[in-house]
Design a protein that fits this description.
Elements lengths: L1 H27 L3 E6 L2 E7 H26 L1 E2 L15 H7 L4 E2 L3 H6 L2 H28 L6 E2 L6 E2 L7 E2 L1 H24 L14 H24 L1 E2 L1 H6 L8 H9 L5 H18 L8 H5 L9 H4 L2 H6 L9 H25 L1
Parallel strand pairs: 3-4
Antiparallel strand pairs: 1-2, 5-8, 6-7
């Protein structure tokens, strides 16, 4: 019953967090930013598209908890010490009265089962991983080197020695708490891994990590939601960062592919153009048509327009892509999923 109640409360808090991400995505509009692979600039994406990546992560967390709840919601009452009670109880009536879906099917299993605890806390540890990844990226993007966001005052502190510093306290604590929850999952696994059927006193050790992981997660989520509602993204600076680093190189290769060049050759030709630009200290858009044609005679005057940010974003026009129309639809779809999630959570409350 404790795990079931925690899941229901977590679902509401996850819906609040997802609403905060979606509100930020809507405020971002068509502002763009660099997307990174290997922590190197890769391609431009809409800021909203980047934020929606976290929406997907936390939506999966919610779905896992909903699935876990199905296995949690079985009633063990009437199992006795190991063989079943000797009193003629109506187990189905008790189950219905307490809001469970069904009674457990086997008394030996019911008296020793902690799978529902293991599954729940394991899901919390994965949710913690997602929170930790989010926190780390926000820490990076708040540095002067990136400058993509301003840390909210209410969730930050100054340095004890350096007057100019603003430290990302909440974000660092979220990273640390994620490790704590993962530690609880490991403790639970080690507590039950060698236990014969049925009940053993070792199972008392499963309660503390359960309570700690649940309370830690329930405490973290509202704070992360508050942080997301308070943060200010530097949209202009984020978009400026898309103007360097050859982030339109794939678009340039796509231009050649559309003219019949095999991608491996288009990749090579644009790569040589990038090397040329590095040596010259310029970007692809700065090369003249004559300079560009030394790498491919198929490049025409319209090539430069295909390197513009709007055009680069627009070519990713697939479901799940960063083309503005696709992102707008993705936000709408996510809104519907969150509303459905919140409806189910309130129905269980």
């Amino acid at each position: 019953m404790y795990v079931r109640g925690s899941i229901d409360e977590l679902q509401v808090k996850l819906a609040d967090l997802l609403d905060a991400f979606l509100a930020s995505a809507e405020r971002a509009g068509n502002a763009a930013m660099p997307a990174y692979t290997h922590l190197q600039k890769a391609e431009p994406v809409l800021v909203a598209h980047w934020l929606l990546a976290y929406v997907e992560m936390f939506t999966r967390d919610s779905e896992r908890l909903a699935d876990c709840r199905k296995r949690v919601n079985l009633c063990p009452l009437g199992s006795g010490a190991v063989a079943g009670t000797t009193i003629a109880l109506d187990r189905r009536a008790m189950t219905a009265e307490l809001g469970f879906d069904a009674p457990t099917a086997n008394s030996v299993d019911a008296t020793s089962d902690r799978d529902f605890v293991l599954e729940f806390v394991t899901h919390l540890s994965l949710q913690g991983v997602h929170l930790s990844r989010w926190a780390e990226e926000m820490i990076l993007f708040s540095t002067q080197e990136f400058g993509f966001l301003r840390l909210p005052e209410a969730y930050s502190t100054g340095s004890s020695a350096m007057p100019q510093k603003k430290n990302p306290d909440l974000l660092e604590l979220v990273r640390g708490k994620a490790g704590r929850v993962a530690g609880s999952a490991t403790t639970l696994l080690m507590s039950v891994k060698g236990l014969p059927l049925a009940y053993n006193k070792d199972l008392q050790e499963t309660q503390e990590p359960l309570f700690d992981a649940s309370e830690t997660s329930l405490t973290m989520l509202p704070l992360v939601t508050g942080w997301m509602r308070a943060v200010e993204f530097e949209f202009e600076h984020m978009q400026m960062a898309t103007q360097s680093g050859f982030m339109n190189a794939w678009a340039a290769a796509t231009y050649l592919v559309e003219r019949g060049v095999p991608f491996r050759l288009a990749h090579e030709q644009v790569g040589k153009a990038v090397v040329f630009c590095v040596e010259k200290g310029c970007e692809l858009r700065d090369l003249s048509l004559e300079q560009l044609r030394q790498f491919s005679p198929l490049i025409e005057a319209d090539f430069h327009s295909r390197l513009e940010l709007d055009a680069v974003l627009a070519i990713h026009d697939v479901v799940g892509g960063t083309a503005p129309g696709r992102v707008k639809q993705a936000i709408s779809d996510a809104r519907q999923r969150v509303a459905a999630m919140r409806g189910v959570a309130h129905a269980h409350a």
